[in-house]
Amino acid sequence: MSQAITAPAATDAPAFSQQCVNLADNRLGSQIIAVSDDFFAKAERMLNHLPALFYPDKYDDNGKWMDGWESRRRRDAGHDWCIVKLGVAGKVKGLQLDTSFFTGNFAPAASIEACYCEHDTPPSDTQWHSILSASALSADNHHFFAVDTEQPISHLKINIFPDGGIARLRVFGHPIPQHSSEQSIDLVALKNGGRVIGYNDAHYGTPSNLLAPAKGVNMGDGWETRRRREPGNDWCIIALGQAGEVDKIEVATTHFKGNFPDKLSIQAANIQDPNDLSLISQSMFWQELLPAKSLSADNEHHFNELNSLGTITHIRVNIYPDGGISRLRLWGKSA
Length: 335
Description:
This protein is mainly β. The chain contains 2 helices and 24 strands. Strands 2, 3, 8, 9, 10, 11, 12 and 14 form an 8-stranded antiparallel beta sheet that branches. Strands 15, 16, 18, 19, 20, 21, 22 and 24 form an 8-stranded antiparallel beta sheet that branches. Strands 1-4 form a two-stranded antiparallel sheet.
């Protein structure tokens, strides 16, 4: 089988795609509840958090293998649809309908309806409301749509007209807290709204993997930088999902054996009016939450002795001099 081609990142991605969490991320537990037809490509592929892949010579029993959701060619009236349960309910600020590698088989148009329901499957009398009216899509392209709603959303119904394929669905929003202020939570977890602001290098793996649930599945499911051949160290900046006081930090180097960082430190700050662009230069002067600590290969590290900084909103993770870590947890209570 030929080598996979990876879909390029969007060059004109709007701010909401950087400032919000993808509530439909499959790592958060998002799932397909129902689908009218996914003969050529299973609808759950559309929820993969990774970029779409294309294998030029890969086929299965039903035809060309596509990395996304693809229905068969309709020969009757109507349209295809699927219902998605978001991994975490939230307030949606934007959508992405990605048709990467779908050229002669993309969905020409799509609309999206939404509801809030505490059950996995919305009942038949559920009142759906439109958050995206029927909008034209094009072949092999990224499509972004801003959404103006403050209503909490747990489920989406994606309608495609009349049939075809979508490579990826991303639903950008702010998760709704599912805990009390007295409960200790992971303040940087994706499901709690944590997000990466910036980083100096991510040659082998993106820092957003650090915030994903469960353990890393392999060495690619983490943040790993290239080998540093100059002075200095690598870093990334993360916004907490909710401001809070941290009382325990966990750092996992799972699967990183010959390439884990020698040391790690964490700086932190309480930023009342954050500007993502200015935080990078500011972060160099933040106070230390966790002084430099030694790390070991393929291990879980627990740090309970932290500097008392009170309520924080952002952290800067420094690794010395380079290397890879799998997961980061900041346990504490939201302010």
